[in-house]
Amino acid sequence: MRHLKNIGYKRPQLLVLCFFLCMPLWAKNNNDNCTKADCDSIIHKGIKNSERGNYIKALEYFTVAREMAVKEKWDQENYSILFNMGFAYYSMFDDGEALKYFFEAYNIAIMQKWTVKELECLNNIANLYAREKMYDKAIEYYTRSSEKAVDENIESHIGLPLMNLGYIYNRLDQPEKARPYILQSIKLLENDFLLSAKVLLLENDLLLGDVLKARKGAWDMYNEEPNVTENGLEMFLWIIISRTYFKEHQYAQAVSYAQRALNSGSDPEYKKIIFKLMADIYEKSGSYHNALRYKDSIFEAERKLTERKNGRMFENNRVKFEIQNYKNQLYAKEEKLSAERKTFYAIIVIICAVVVIMILVFRQKKIIAERNRNITELNLEKEKNHNLELERKVTKALLEQERLNNEIEAKNRKISAKALYLSDRNEIIEEIVTYLSKRPKLVKDQILANHVNSLKAYLRADKEWDNFIRHFEEVNQGFLSRLKEQHPDLTVNDIRFIAYIYMNLSVKEIATILNITIVAAKKRKERLAAKMEISKEVDIYAYISGV
Known about the structure:
This protein is mainly alpha-helical. Helices cover 82% and strands 0% of the residues. The chain has helices at residues 19-29, 36-51, 55-72, 75-91, 95-112, 115-131, 135-151, 159-171, 175-188, 191-207, 211-224, 234-247, 251-264, 268-285, 288-437, 440-444, 446-460, 463-475, 479-486, 492-502, 507-514, 518-531, 540-545. It is rod-shaped, with a radius of gyration of 71 Å.
């Protein structure tokens, strides 16, 4: 009946775009940034395909989305995917796979304390057990669902498991147990679920033996509820009416309404129920031929159900194979992309290593260059200090040389002054001697004559020159030796004249000292320059100073 469908199902929130759809983009752009909005579109496509019965395509979308949700640890998205996959397998009558995915979704809901989602899973798990006629398990999970909803005060999820409990007890032919559940559910349910609960209540009336109430209620519902036909509940009403007539032994009426029920439904499972009802009616009425015919119809319906079940099993296995093949392709792509990522990361590591090495090399070069620069600067500083020290020494030497030169010059000036003094003195003595020699009266004076002779003898003596040479050598050490070494042919008079030139005396002064004329002194200077082979362009004083 309609109430056994996944009436607790709600469309899940649309999820994030799956990892494997994002991976090609990542491999291209080196970026894993997939968004939930992208995955939302993929999940929406899966839901649409599931609603159209294209379960293989739907499961492909859900599989892709699940890979992404598991990897990113998105619990809510993973729950929605598992719930939708369970519902897809439920619709494909693969109850084992459906149960597996509903349980996985249920576990997530428990861990995350999502009470409403937990109730949805419990109700759908119970639906699976009910369809497999495992009524004990179905009752257990419907009961857990209803009690949990009551404890959490979630009224919207209380009525549904109560109605399904009533359905199970009706199937077990325990109408007394079923009735309280059905009555409670009618108070809580709305719309289509409420109509299903009312049909169950009519069935319960029939099981309790209130035939007239059940038939009247079925007719009233058929006439007063416009949605009965649209919701597929019309067939169940005809079955209830047919059974009421069957209990009253009005077999013709019972067959008539059973036929109407048969005409209003096409599902082999429900046709099997109607064929059994008609076979029972014909058997009770004594029409054994028709009874056998409908028993054959039951076998045919069972055969079709078996074919459908086998077809579903084949289809389910094919879907599983396709999904597994699709997963293998996704895993292959993942491995390829993982290898590409590893290669990319290896390249990045190599580039980083090269950059680090280059930085270290450049840094080392910089350190070496800095050290060399410091060494160069230090050497330059040392050289500069050395040069300064040399400069100080040279300056000191020059100053000392200048001092010595000044001292020599001063001494030479003293010697020159003394030579000039002696020259002037001799000149005066000579004038006196000449004057006295020209006076006869004075010559006759023997004493005076002796003094005059002494003066003349003094003038002829060369002792003063010897003193001059000795003082000159003390002042200008080595000069005369170097001069004689370079010009060995120079006479004593030549050396005396050169000494006066070296003392920077003028020609006039030299002429006075030597008691010669200035012209004679000049000519003697020229002859001396020629004798020493001094070029006319070179000053004799400059030449002598360099000896």
